[in-house]
Amino acid sequence: MEEESRESRNTARLRMMELANMISVPMSLNAIVRLNVPDAIWEGGSNTPLSAAQILARVLPSGDPENLQRILRMLTSYRVFQEQVTHSERKYSLTEIGKTLVTDADGLSYGYGPYVLQHHQDALMGAWPLVHEAVVDPTCEPFVKVHGEPAYGYYGKRPEMNDLMQKAMSGISVPVMTALLDVYDGFGGVQRLVDVGGSAGDSLRMILRKHPHVREGINFDLPEVVAKAPQIPRVTHVGGNMLESIPAADAIFMKWILTTWTDDEVKLIMENCYKALPVGGKMIVCDSMLPEKTDESHRTRALLEADIMVMTIYKTKGKQRTEEEFRRLGHLAGFPHIQAFYIDYVFTILEFRK
């Protein structure tokens, strides 16, 4: 019994050491993306195992292969890389996780290269030491306490941050929208579709390609966002504020929009959607749904970690929600009919019909 107790205490201390040092993981991911390591290994699909020195030769005129190998070894323990050891030399190839960081011909990864960089910019990192302030004073985000203004306003004044945000969102939209369009057929019969918070219009582009009967797509976002959106056939870019009004349409689509808003704000956004829809029209919400019970799965951890980021950077009372919480807000906004479609292991579509 005493031996078991000692083993349990040792395991607990080791786990706490891991948690305390965990900042090494995202910052090392940030480093390998900045150094273009995934692309150097992938090289058009070869994914040939390479030593740190061989990788370095492909990405930099000079550098320290030993320090790069230290980063690669640590990320190997998180299954980002696969390590082969032969004759005392370590070589690395990409796992399925690592492949999500490879860029394509358009400069977008499968989604997560720009996403990693966007999350770890200096301005965002400066807010993290103040996470406890979200508990002490929930009226002001830690990001605002550091920078004096909300994150989206801060991004809007800095083109490089705004561009990286759009690139990150575009990259991760592609695999999600592909899965959504394979499973969900709720765009049938829609003539005019509004994408609220549509950024560069990538989601609308994919929807309209799959559903040519949709005559017009409205990409609705902040004026400074849509001002830089590219021209897309059958898509009109409209600037505005969803807390004030939303363009009229047969259907309104929202993907990952409601997480960064409070319950009262989400209810207001849903009410504005309700006003913009005809009888029988629908609001289509694609979002990640928290499980009712907390567990140790990668999915639950990813969502709860994202929840803390929302609290720290964007809105202290914005949050990830359970399906039941979304349903309750939809009913309060006036929607009598709600149906769920489970598109993959992370995302769910909730269809709110007027």
CATH third-level topology of the largest domain: Rossmann fold
CATH superfamily of the largest domain: Vaccinia Virus protein VP39
What is the CATH architecture descriptor of the largest domain? 3-Layer(aba) Sandwich
The pLDDT mean sits at 93
Helix content: 40-55%
* Strand residue content: 15-25%
- State the name of the first-level CATH class of the largest domain: Alpha Beta
Count helical runs: 17
Quick overview of this protein structure:
This protein is an alpha/beta fold. The chain has helices spanning 2-20, 24-34, 37-42, 52-59, 65-76, 96-99, 112-119, 122-125, 133-136, 142-147, 151-156, 159-183, 202-210, 223-226, 263-276, 298-314, 323-332; strands spanning 81-86, 89-94, 192-196, 216-221, 235-239, 251-255, 282-290, 321-322, 337-342, 347-353.
Write a structural description.
The chain has 354 residues and is of the alpha/beta class. The chain folds into two domains: 98 residues, Arc Repressor Mutant, subunit A; 241 residues, Vaccinia Virus protein VP39 (Rossmann fold, 3-Layer(aba) Sandwich). It is 47% helix and 16% strand. It is built from 17 helices and ten strands. Strands 3, 4, 5, 6, 7, 8, 9 and 10 form an eight-stranded mixed sheet that branches. Helix 13 links the parallel strand 3 and strand 4. It is globular and about 70 Å long. The protein starts with a helix and ends with a strand. The mean pLDDT is 93.
